[in-house]
Predict the structure.
Amino acid sequence: MHLALKLVAQRLALGLLLLLAVSVLIFAGTQILPGDVAQSILGQSATPEALANLRRDMGLNEPAVSRYFSWLGGALTGDLGTALTSGADISKSIGSRLGNTVFLAGVAAVIAIPLAILLGLLAVRYRERWPDKLISAVTLASISLPEFFIGYVLILIFAVNLGWFPSVATVYDGMGFLDRLSVVILPALTLTMVVLAHMMRMTRAAILNVMQSAYIETAELKGLSGLQVIARHAFPNAIAPIVNVVMLNLAYLVVGVVVVEVVFVYPGMGQYLVDHVSKRDVPVVQACGLIFAAVYIGLNMVADIVSILANPRLRHPK
Amino acid sequence: MSDQLLKVRDLKIGATVYPPGEKPHDIQIVHGVSFDLAPGKVLGLIGESGAGKSTIGLSAMAYGRGGVEITGGEVWVNGRDILQESVKGLRALRGTEVTYVSQSAAASFNPAKKIMDQVTEASVSQGKFSRADAEAKAVELFAKLGLPDPENIGSRYPHQVSGGQLQRCMTALALCPEPDLVVFDEPTTALDVTTQIDVLMAIKEAIRDTGVAALYITHDLAVVAQVSDDIMVLKMGEMVEYGSVDQIINAPQEDYTKALVSVRSIDHEEKTPTDNPMLKVENITARYKGTNFDVLNDVNVELHPGQTLAIVGESGSGKSTLARVITGLLPPRDGRIEFSDRTLSPDLAGRTRDDLRELQMIYQMADVAMNPRQTVGTIIGRPLEFYFGLRGEEKRKRIKELLDEIEMGDGFIDRYPAELSGGQKQRVCIARALAAQPKLIICDEVTSALDPLVADGILKLLLDLQKVENVAYLFITHDLATVRAIADSIAVMYQGRVVRYGSKSEVLSPPFDDYTDLLLSSVPEMKLGWLEEVIANRKMESAGN
């Protein structure tokens, strides 16, 4: 079989295996959490009979292994169970929350990734000169500030003083795309400033590393301009490390945005998870954990696959 | 200006260096060099490393590698001083008017792009030819340079062709824009000798057929004698001698040139084998983990105490693998190693400390075989501590003795590797091996990275040490001149097998097997017309068959 295809298939299989292992860990982890769900639902004054009935109804008396498999089977068919606290269908409520989070992450990514790579290319083109130093200083300053601080500063400038965007990112069903966009622009900018520096620095480092190669000298001796050398000869060989850091940051945009969602009161996955952890709503916590794990593993798998496909030695074997 | 294509006047080139522990400072690399090159002529620039020959070659494109800067003088190309050109003017010059062929085509081709795109890029980007014209020209050049399947080889990636083929592609890359001048920077140095001869001929014919002028940079006088009209000998950034090929090779004036011409004339009497060989390699077959072919196939050789066995072969012949098997780094699949009347454990873990001590190794790259953060004293002192438990004054005394033995003196004891020259670094590595008082030292291409004169010094030192210490050498090399200088017996390896084995005089005397014949006849000789002679002989032989 073609070598690259074989490696990609291996990565896919490995990703699925990893996800399965994570699901076991999540399930086991929520089992050893202190406290009893039935007790927390019914409160301290519940009678032992009521507790026993509820446990039986919820299937809590079944052995852990069989509960794991019925949970996993449900998750695979899109049924994540019902929230203990509200009785709502988890799949349904997560669906809209996840949509919101992905939308926010998507907007942030669309701004941040091209910007980071462009800034990285410019930093290489003008390395050790003032544009490089300015880019590094600004991006490093923005990563050093806490996200909630950046969020509030942006709110102060753009929402309070200028009044261009709302300070609270309220979204509702049936909202138009442009309205939605104007609502998430401030949180997206906050996230952009958080992830920009990492991706920019990595792009710069990866390309500078490639710039040491003899084939860059060949390109310069062909009389190509600085940007032609970087874009045609350096960038294609720096894709693998850049994609890796981009995917890592994308994953962060999906699973690590709790603070930003709280600052802007945005109804995303982060807030949803935090709410239900405090209520000991185990099925919701499990569902969120599984989805976050899937996103993380999925994106890193994409990075691996792109790295494989970016390598001409694997793509075109002898 | 006159009818010269390239006119260099009083060229001065400098660089900023950053020595460890010192302030950065400027040094001068080239001290006022002048020469001319007429259209269609080939000038050979020859010298050892540090002579400034590559730096001078690149100045014809007004290019400074790394921190190198042209600090004075004039470089006229086609009647204009390119040192006064704007960045834009230089771009128009580079890649079309003057082009460059580097030593390592494997590193100089972008691994992510097809060969054809890279060969035609300069012509197309600079608007000299349309893409279709450039591609037609490239195919023509591929054919002229003797590449297989010239129509389609351009659609392959660099890793999909061999090293010799890639070096030809690099030549095609340089010739494609129809330049007036090509700078060849050691274009055949990284190739095996049997590949070098074909590439050399291809380059020579391409130069002749296209009428392009060339600067041909190399450290190998025998090679440059085959392709140049004139030769300039350089040393430490200064011109030593400048004349026609005939004059430089047959009637050198300066002592330095004479030394270069007569280099590698060391010869030593071969010793007769003893009754009791010290090392017996018996039926060794080995392969690397995860592969399914044998890198070594039924290898049998013997080595006698105080003698030298040279293992000769080209890259991929398995000669370094044999060293790995003997040292225990790669356990063989089959066969055994007898050493000093005992059988060595196939893997490193099973060997005693005495096994390790008596079998030392010296490597090709002295640079990376030493810890840059340790002083010479620490490096040589380590085996003294490890094997003999020497400490303090006793150890220091022994280190000084060893430094005397390698003809460096105890002034070097507190120096760091970065402060040493290439030859001195290799001497320190030899001292480190000697410190263990070994019976056998495996020398893996120990002179390949050194300049010829320095390499000669190392070989003489090794021969002297052998007399004094009665140590045996297993000498791995691809260089037949080195073999003549040092060997008592020789094993010629080809594709994992020993194809010829015996005393030096037997192996180097006819009748030869096909491979040894090819190998011996491919070594460049310091005489004019050698290349044509060999090629003509080979053509006659193949016609005769």
